[in-house]
Amino acid sequence: MKTAAELKEIAQFIAEYATRLMGSGVHTSRVVRNSKRLGEALGVRVIVSAFQKVVTFSVCDDDSGEVYSEVADIPPLPISFELNAELSALSWEAYDRQMPLPEIRARYAEIVARPRLDPIFTLILVGLANASFCRLFGGDWFAVSIVFTATLLGFFLRQRMQARGFNHYVIFIASSFAASMYASVALMFDTTSEVALATSVLYLIPGVPLINGVIDIVEGHVLNGIARLTSALMLIICIAIGLSCTLMIVKNGLL
Amino acid sequence: MLFEILSDGFFAAVAAIGFGAISDPPMRAFPVIALLAAAGHALRFVLMHNGMDIATASLCASVVIGVGSLLLGGRIRCPMTVLFIPALLPMIPGMYAYKTVFAMIMFMQHLGDSAASTLYMEEILRNGFVTFCVIFMLAAGAAAPIFLFNKRAHSLTRNKKYISE
Questions:
Q1: Whole-angstrom Cα distance, residue A114 to residue A93?
Q2: A237 CB near a chain B CB, below 8 Å?
Q3: Cross-chain residue pair B23–A195, CB shorter than 8 Å
């Protein structure tokens, strides 16, 4: 038996937990499963319904028949695989060891407070990644070095604009334009300039929502899946717009 | 030939680590991501070298990556998606996507010239279709093990001592 206050406390914690997962780019069925498991660990039944921007759910105590419902906004957080892995593990640990709520809450706070990867470190890794991508597509070493620097420029711009809170779409258009425009200097030299141009914007591809969208649809969360794919498609269109601006300017050099 | 396969795998691994870093994976996931990406991309390279088309080869590679993430995920307690999404990214058909966008622009520039615009329209369809198919195959192939081995895939982050077979 839970008192109404206990039930409310559990519901609020699960709301925080589920919206954090949704916001960090976890596919819907995993969020639902983890929340139910966490509820089971705390002795309640959880029924979740998740949308793109909001999560609603009910927490039921089957012994007393008491039900508490909660609606919570999903915050727009950066994608984090670390939270995905650690918070999923937390739900299993709570379930297996029957952890009490204060202990789960403390562990949760500790996991959420962990720092993300260093932005400079990420920047260099992304530059190297896009450069090897260029190599995979058959670019020569000169094109590879151009793509490396173009990606550094584009991704740095993206990081700065994100920190300033610019609109998503504006960020994607601007950084795809900047990276491809820089990569178009390859046209002036005798190199695989087409490969350089094509790969310079690929670091922007929203792979996580694309794949999550497909998983959601196959697992029956069709609405969420389509919403994810639509937002991924919007970002891809933005990449194409930025690239198009460059191509319109330099297209005579490509023919 | 062997050198080409190895270097293909190496560059795929670097690409996967970098693209993965954008999504902030746990540190312990990086070696597995690199291994899966290298295995998948090198397999696709070999298959395409032996005459298989890009969509089917991508499907084979993504299934290997998916199964690999299922087998290795339990050891480091990471969900499958954390491992296979970065590992799939080096297989995104970037050149086809680029050619689609380029053909779209050229199509708009040659609206008056029906021979040229037909040619560009064909390019848009051809490249766009390949891009779509490959991306779909990548997502579907890697996610398939989640649906096939439901129970195991859902308990990768669980402490092993509580799993009763």
A1: 19
A2: no
A3: no
CB crowding A138-149: b at 16 or more within 10 Å, else e: ebeeebbbbbbb
Q: What is the pLDDT along chain A (255 residues), one digit of tens a residue?
A: 678 888 888 888 999 999 999 999 899 989 999 999 999 888 899 999 888 889 998 998 888 888 888 899 998 888 899 999 999 999 998 888 888 888 899 999 999 888 888 889 999 999 999 999 888 888 888 889 999 999 999 999 999 999 898 998 999 999 999 999 999 888 888 778 888 888 999 999 898 998 899 889 988 899 999 999 999 999 999 999 999 999 888 877 776
> Last residue of a domain, which of A88, A112, A136?
A112
Q: State the smallest CA–CA distance between residue A17 and chain B in angstroms.
A: 17
Distance from CA of B82 to the nearest CA of A (A): 6
Dist CA A185 CA A193 (whole Å): 8
- Residues A125, A231, single domain; the answer is yes
User: Which of A112, A139, A172 corresponds to the end of one domain?
Assistant: A112
Contacts of A159 (CB under 8 A, 6+ apart): A119, A123
| Domain residue limits at A125 | 119-254
